[in-house]
Amino acid sequence: MYLVFLKERWAGTSDEAELKDYAWYEDNSERMAHPVGQKNPNGLGIHDMCGNVWEWVFDNYDEQYYESGHKDNPNGPLTGFYRVLRGGSWINTPMDVRTAVRGRRIPMDWLQHEGFRLVLSHKTKHNKE
User: Fold this and answer.
1) What is the CATH number of the domain that holds 63?
2) Would you say 90 and 39 are in contact if contact means Cβ atoms under 8 Å apart?
3) d(CA 81, CA 101)
4) Among 9, 25, 26, 114, which lies 20 to 30 A Cα-Cα from 33?
5) Averaged in consecutive runs of 10 residues, what is the pLDDT profile of the chain (129 residues)?
6) Which residues form the Sulfatase-modifying factor enzyme-like domain (predicted)?
7) Contact 109, 84 (CB under 8 A)
8) Residue 9 in 3-state DSSP?
9) Three-state SS for 60?
């Protein structure tokens, strides 16, 4: 399932006609953010990875990083003035909410179409029987 996810243009689909079922963007958002989970999840079961609000990520931004950096799960450069934003938002076109698109912003700035996702690692106990 993970490999299929990597080949999608948007998180959940590669068909622009289906995008409205997976993301809030300029054509269907009524120019505002929406509560999480109202659209279909992607192939990994995660909601709102494209559209709704740009998500701040930990990576520093470097326009040339993908040309010289790690190819598998790149973390971005160690330092930088800008941080990366991913996923596009409710004000963006379908092309701007694609999974491959990165934005950049100064960390001290904030706009109403930007946010972040809280992540909690889940540890499981393995029963030994």
Assistant:
1) 3.90.1580.10
2) no
3) 19
4) 9
5) 62 96 97 95 91 91 77 78 93 94 87 82 60
6) 20-119
7) no
8) coil
9) strand
Element (H, E) at 4: helix 2-7
Left, alpha or beta for 67 (phi > 0: left; psi -120 to 50: alpha)?
alpha
Residue 122 lies in a domain: no
Neighbour tally for 69: CB within 10 Å: 13
Measured CA distances, 85 to 113, 125, 129 (Å): 11, 34, 46
Note down the domain range covering 34.
1-117
What is the reported pLDDT for 108? 84
Write the CA distances from 73 to 66, 96, 99, 110, 126, integer angstroms.
Answer: 11, 21, 14, 26, 28
**DSSP assignments along 20-72, one per residue:** GGT---TTTSTTS---TTSS---TTS---SSSSSEEEEEEEP-TTHHHHS-SS
Other Cβ atoms within 10 Å of 128 Cβ, number: 4
Q: Are 36 and 49 in contact (CB under 8 A)?
A: no
Q: Which residues share a beta bridge with 45?
A: none
- Total structural domains within the chain: 1
C-alpha to C-alpha distance for 21 and 29, rounded to whole angstroms: 12
Question: What are the helix (H) ranges across 20-110?
Answer: 65-68
